[in-house]
Write a structure and sequence with these properties.
Radius of gyration: 20 Å
Shape: globular
Largest sheet: 6 strands, mixed
CATH class of one domain: Alpha Beta
Helix content: 40-55%
CATH topology of one domain: Nucleotidyltransferase, domain 5
Number of helices: 11
Oligomer: single chain
Strand content: 15-25%
CATH architecture of one domain: 2-Layer Sandwich
């Protein structure tokens, strides 16, 4: 483990541990009587983030690596089954820590957000599509950005221009992007209240008079390219360079955090693996911000 990654892991563990001491209700539910877990929740989430940053898509391989090389930091290493069950049970804690770390950055106050969705493949064979536990949620769809068909889900993201995740959701391929954005905003009314007249930049799929009126009532300003037959809209000169921003953020998830190699076979398994990668990116940005690194979204210091 590099010095930078060791520093990040220590800072993340301390922050999660402090939050759990101050807000114990954030921890996964456990019976009042019973054996206390040997691996703490702070250690569990730190392990998950490190696995994402180091590019491990196999939990068994990752836990063998931890047992061999990181015993000094993690004296107890659970088996793969126990680790997986603990991680799935901690999905709400993962979600809470993403928000807590994001708020504790200078990027949180940015006055421009970008919104988009990206495919998350879940299988490559017809038998998988018929027999997988994900069947019904995962669907066949087309990715126009990469000109390919796929079977899986979509990750919807609202991010700052620096790549900090602000809102996120995982849906079926055919879910309406506008309705998904509305749902994400409905789940976080405090977010829009603290960011009045925030600018959101999206692609042509975020259209419609009723939809734009709804965002205006929420005190949000939507910028998007004009659709065919529409008059030129404000901010046209910004769309091409900012389109590359959101594609770059998606590529960070896919190229460096192996989003499409998540290995999940059930809805809970896929969800927690996606959350782990969102937390990993948020943690890297949070740590880079606090250590005054010039590029907040850079993972170079942590991915080897």
């Amino acid at each position: 483990m590099t010095k930078d990654l060791n520093t990040l892991a220590t800072a993340l563990y301390a922050r999660i541990d402090d939050e759990l001491k101050a807000s114990p209700w954030l921890a996964p539910w456990r019976p009042k009587t019973g054996i206390a877990p040997t691996l703490s929740d702070a250690e569990l989430l730190t392990l998950a983030v490190l696995s994402a940053l180091l590019g491990y898509t196999s939990e068994r391989r990752w836990l063998r690596r931890v047992a061999a090389d990181f015993r000094g930091m993690f004296p107890y290493v659970p088996g793969q089954s126990g680790y997986n069950k603990r991680l799935r049970a901690a999905s709400s804690l993962l979600t809470c820590m993403i928000r807590i770390l994001a708020v504790d950055t200078t990027l949180w106050s940015d006055d421009v957000w970008v919104v988009d969705s990206t495919p998350v493949g879940c299988g490559c064979s017809r038998e998988t599509a018929k027999r997988s536990d994900l069947a019904g949620w995962a669907q066949y769809g087309y990715c126009a950005s990469h000109s390919r068909y796929f079977w899986g889900l979509r990750l919807h993201l609202v991010c700052t221009l620096g790549g900090l995740p602000v809102l996120f959701a995982v849906t079926g391929v055919k879910a309406d992007e506008r309705e998904t954005l509305r749902d994400m905003l409905d789940t976080a009314p405090d977010l829009t209240a603290s960011h009045p007249w925030q600018t959101i930049i999206g692609d042509r799929n975020y259209y419609g008079r009723e939809f734009e009126q709804d965002l205006t009532e929420r005190e949000l300003v939507l910028l998007r390219p004009a659709r065919k037959g529409e008059a030129e809209r404000a901010g046209t000169h910004l769309f091409k360079p900012l389109r590359q921003v959101i594609e770059s953020i998606n590529q960070t998830f896919k190229g460096q955090l192996d989003l499409e190699r998540h290995g999940g076979r059930s809805p809970a398994g896929v969800a927690v693996r996606i959350l782990t990668r969102i937390l990993a990116l948020t943690t890297a940005i949070w740590h880079n911000d606090h250590t005054t690194q010039p590029v907040k979204r850079s993972l170079i210091a942590y991915d080897h």
